[in-house]
């Protein structure tokens, strides 16, 4: 899977929320979220075309209007991004990542225990 730039990832976040959308829908979403002006159509259209070239998006044509939809799920992208992050910064060790978070006080031992308990409960309910 190819890497996304910050701008591409920002647009993908919007598309994952909207599920199916046009460039105009994305521009309106950004305007509502920021309370500012709509970004230029050409800017969003360029980013969307790049996302399509990277196989993150598909489209359906309705005349001259294209409706875009994700070809990569947010969960799949998150999983791959986290795996790369752990590989790049923690020698591929999730234990090292969790240890880092505890040491940096981003998560405490009680929260970690609760997460593990919740995980075990979810896992046993699937069986």
Helix and strand topology:
Blueprint: H1 6-18, H2 23-34, H3 41-53, E1 57-62, E2 65-70, H4 74-90, H5 94-103, H6 109-126
Antiparallel strand pairs: 1-2
Helix pairs in contact: 1-3, 2-3
Entry keywords:
single chain, 127 residues, mainly alpha, Arc Repressor Mutant, subunit A, Penicillinase repressor fold, 2 domains, two-stranded antiparallel ribbon, 6 helices, 2 strands, 9% strand
Can you tell me the CATH class of the largest domain?
Mainly Alpha
Main sheet strand line-up: 1-2
Question: Helicity, in percent?
Answer: 55-70%
Write the element-wise H/E pattern from the N-terminal end onward. Answer: HHHEEHHH
Give the uncertain stretches in residue-range form. Answer: none
Q: If helices are DSSP runs of H or I spanning 4 or more residues, what is the number of helices?
A: 6
At CATH level 2, the architecture of the largest domain is Orthogonal Bundle
The CATH homology group name of the largest domain: Winged helix-like DNA-binding domain superfamily/Winged helix DNA-binding domain
Main sheet summary: 2 strands, antiparallel
CATH topology value of the largest domain = Arc Repressor Mutant, subunit A
Number of E-type strands:
2
- End-to-end gap: 31 Å
Shape: elongated
- Average pLDDT works out at 92
Can you tell me the number of structural domains? 2
Rg, alpha carbons: 19 Å
Q: SS-based structural class?
A: mainly alpha
- The amount of beta strand, in percent, is 5-15%
